[in-house]
Amino acid sequence: MTSATWTSTPSWARLAALLWGALVAAPMTGCRSAPAATNAVAAAPEGEVWLTSQQVRDAKVQVEPVAEHGVGNEIVTSGKVSFDDLRVAHIFSPVTGRIKRIVADPGERMKKGAALATIESPDVGNAFADYGKAQADLIASGHDLRRQKELFDAHAGSQRDYEAAEDNYGKAKAEIERAQQKARLFRNTGGSTDAVSQGFTLRAPIEGEVIARNVNPGAEVQGQYSGGAAVELFTIGELDSVWVFADVFEMDLARVKRDAPVSIKVVAYPDKVFAGKVDWISDALDPTSRTARVRCSIPNPGRELKPEMYATVAISVAAPPVAALPRAALLRIGDQTVVFVETGSAPDGRVKFSRRIVAVNEDEGTDYLPIVRGVNRGDHVVTSGAILLSGML
User: What is the pLDDT of residues 44-96, one digit of tens each?
Assistant: First the structure.
């Protein structure tokens, strides 16, 4: 609009135009002068991580307060699984001969007195022959002694002949006792004999499972009383309880006590721990290794532990409680050992986690390590999720 036109416009029209322009311009001016809105989130200082409660849950961050624990409360050493000697029988043949028949198979459960094998042996025939001859000699020497006594009493025989008859009778008694003892020895070994077939039946001395069989039909076996090297024919026993022998160094021996709890691990079952207790401590040290043998009794209902397995043995010992960190809380960053500590809430409500350099005594303890410096009792230390927090720095 030109100045001439504006001048000729009525005054009321000019006022209306000015008001309309002001109304239109007012909101535009207000928009230009208002401060810009922002969605920026405050950044955490260096060495700290701030997470919302939901982020903490999603990251599965777990926190544990620093407290006192018994550190150095285990002695870890090597060991070997063995039979419980009171629950196993190692069976040898008391006679020399040939295996005629095998009755028991490995894994089979046997009652006490059950037949294991039959052995054809000349020792059986010899034993019965010796016993029969000893009986005959005893009868003959008894007759001679009575006759010589009658003659001597009647003054018809010499004292020399009577004493000789007494000596022969004594020798005959001794011989029949020897033959009886030999026959009884066969019976005491859990076996039975057959004089006709010269067979000896080897029997189980205890009830249990046939754990091992080291002989086959037709094999020649050496009698354990014959002076040769006898071979173990059968092993019968129970594996529901075993022994583990551990070697404890001299410096740790004073801390090991009878009935102390024990945990066992073997290579065959790396994720399983077998619990037991110490039931015997040797009174002598091995002169070479300077260790003492410690026997642990371990229940084995699942029969997983087998004799001759190597084991890792952890023996619980008494130790004073000290402020300690869980091993799972420690992170290695270069040559530093660090942990993350929960230090409260940020201004916006997020949870603050601060990284701290710590020092611990790694020569003692297993799951918990004594604190040298860096954190104090009561500090809340991250025990799970620390690696994730470290990656956020």
Answer: 788 888 899 998 898 899 999 998 877 767 889 999 999 998 889 999 988 88
Instruction: Give me the pLDDT at residue 268, please.
Output: 94
User: Rounded to whole angstroms, how far apart are CA atoms 316 and 293?
Assistant: 16
Alpha-carbon span 94 to 79, nearest angstrom: 34
pLDDT of residue 20: 41
* Residues 275, 393: Cα–Cα separation, whole Å: 43
- Helix axis angle, 159-188 to 122-153, nearest 10°: 150
- Count of helices and strands (H, E) across the chain: 6, 25
Both structure tokens of 270: 């790396």
For position 17, what pLDDT does the model report? 45
What architecture (CATH level 2) is domain 48-71+321-391? Beta Barrel (2.40)
State residue 211 phi and psi, 5-degree precision. Answer: -80, -35
CA dihedral 89, 93, 98, 100 (to 10 degrees): -50
Closest CA to 202 of 162, 166, 232, 244: 232
Predicted structure pTM score: 0.52
Map 57-110 to HEC letters. HHCCCEEEECEEEECCCEEEEEEEEEECHHHEEEECCCCCEEEEEECCCCCCEE
For the chain, residues classed under CATH 1.10.287.470 are: 93-232
In this prediction, residue 364 carries a pLDDT of 65
| pLDDT for 12 | 36
Residue whose C-alpha is closest to residue 63's, from 371, 341, 359:
341
93-232 CATH fold: Helix Hairpins (1.10.287)
> Which segments of the chain belong to CATH 2.40.420.20?
48-71+321-391
| Distance from C-alpha of 110 to C-alpha of 203, rounded to nearest angstrom | 10
Residue 278 φ then ψ, to 5°: -80, 130
Answer whether CATH 2.40.30.170 is correct for domain 75-85+237-316: yes
